[in-house]
Write a structure and sequence with these properties.
The protein has a single domain, classed as Rossmann fold (3-Layer(aba) Sandwich), CATH 3.40.50.720. Helix content is about 35%, strand content about 15%. It has an eight-stranded mixed β-sheet, sandwiched between helices. Helix 1 links the parallel strand 1 and strand 2. The chain starts with a strand and ends with a helix.
Length: about 210
């Protein structure tokens, strides 16, 4: 696949490295412009290119949104219509400012993004693991105690695509259900950034 990345901080760059390591092409972008991504693209080699956010969105078969939540309204809309979009966001009021609709739990970060991207197929993933652990803790399928990661989304096909990608990266997958259920593994929930195998993750999610 070709994977577009909107945001090239620690998580976005880690996902770009994993994607290239597993045979995918990537187009990376950030808020400062393609020219600031020369070192990352050089490190990643021929399968990687830098672009604008709109360019990464247009190029990707799957597009990862890894920008701070406060910037979600800047994510391109038209270019993502019909595409699988992975939302990695968490809500940090001390950094993002206050979102009353998140404070009162009437919606979730992924539902905010989905409302901003009405034509996209949004899947919540990769938000409950530190980028360093994402890079280092992947293991082959069938490894005893293999770490599991949760996903949530309203489109079954999109979730299969994301689950396959997570499996390639070395993790089992627990499908939590529709996008609204992403609240079960958001910040400060039992499943947030704690390492569990599949059984342990299901138990933690049940308490979310």
């Amino acid at each position: 696949m070709r994977i577009g990345l909107i945001g090239a901080g620690s998580l976005g760059s880690t996902l770009a490295r994993l994607a290239v390591d597993h045979g995918h092409e990537v187009v990376v972008s950030n808020s400062r412009g393609p020219e600031t991504l020369t070192d990352l693209v050089t490190e990643l080699g021929d399968p990687a290119a830098a672009g604008t956010a709109a360019g990464a969105a247009a190029a990707g078969d799957v597009v990862v949104v890894a920008v701070p939540l406060r910037s979600y309204r800047e994510v391109p809309v038209a270019e993502l219509a019909g595409k699988v979009v992975i939302d990695t966001n968490n809500y940090y009021p001390e950094l993002d400012g206050q979102f009353p609709e998140l404070d009162d739990d009437s919606t979730t970060t992924s539902e905010l993004l989905a409302a901003h991207l009405p034509g996209a197929r949004v899947v919540k993933a990769f938000n409950n693991i530190y980028s360093a652990h994402l890079a280092s803790e992947g293991t082959p399928a069938g490894t005893p105690g293999r770490r599991a990661l949760p996903i949530a989304g309203d489109d079954a096909g999109a979730k299969r695509t994301v689950a396959d990608l997570i499996g390639e990266f070395g993790f089992d997958v627990v499908d939590v259900g529709p996008l609204v259920e992403g609240r079960r593994f958001q910040r400060d929930k039992p499943a947030y950034v704690a390492a569990f195998d599949e059984a342990g993750l299901r138990e933690a999610l049940s308490r979310g």
